[in-house]
Amino acid sequence: MPxxxxxxxxxxxxxxxxxxxxxxxxxxxxxxxLVVDGGITQVxxxxxxxxxxxxxxxxxxxxxxxxNASIKLVNSNKEFEYFIxxxxxxxxxxxxxxxxEVGDSYYIEIDINENKYRSDPQTLPIPIDPDxxxxxxxxxxxxxxxxxxxxxxxxxxxxxxxxNIKGEITRLKWKVDESWSFTERKCSPxxxxxxxxxxxxxxxxxxxxxxxxxxxxxxxxxxLIGYKKILDRVExxxxxxxxxxxxxxxxxxxxxxxxxxxxxxxxxDIFDLPPAQLxxxxxxxxxxxxxxxxxxxxxxxxxxxxxxxxxxILPLTVKRKGYLCAVGKYVPACCACLVxxxxxxxxxxxx
Length: 351
Fold this sequence. Notes:
The protein has 351 residues and is mainly β. It is 8% helix and 40% strand.
């Protein structure tokens, strides 16, 4: 683990063990159930879980974070490591003493005041590495908030991946994010132009899952897993990445997400209380009747990327010179790119 990251984890641990304010958790109260959101993979340096209480179905109230919990990850040999409290309901596993490995089994134990919870043990599957990402430039239409149909420029994103490895049923889930760069212009003789990097998730409110059950082939070509609504072509002046994270699921995890897809309300949060509460794999060990929402995932993760340049988005055109920073008409970002939303000068490690 990088020294900077280790230092951060230690600081968070010291601060949160002394500065946590009491939180009154009432799991029996209607619309106020424990929600567990997150999991572990074999590749991430830090794995995170968020603990909240659910909001009432149909409301816009934000979920309340649970700040005073204790969470530990336990493997098949009963070795364990505690998560670090990062605040706002987030807890991080840094993997200093317990590494997450393919083929091993894991569960979590959660202590909240006098309530103790435990997840079902799960074995981390063998990861399936996708071959490539393909994309298609097109147009999409949708109905806006006032009922009018609007058409916008769009990029559809597809995955190509092996399935049914060694005859085993494949169960997958995908998440897609994007990142792009923007370099300042030299605005004065003493100005040293910086490059900013922007990143964000795509279609974060949608679930894309897949099962190869009843499929006899061994390859999944051109599976649509996301789309990019192009609101500003300036994002393609320089290099633009699409990053696809493919998760190999256990059978139990796939069954859970399949049910969630069927009941999720696109107008609300996935952890709003649905008409029929979907319980996950975390249980109160002293009260089997308590409803606990969400799911603790033990999943294998693989990532594949594709870089797009201006010439790759034809027939859409982006002129590098003068598109945003025409001489004499510079916008503030041309000289100070950190004014752009979600910008940072920290270069992604894959850039």
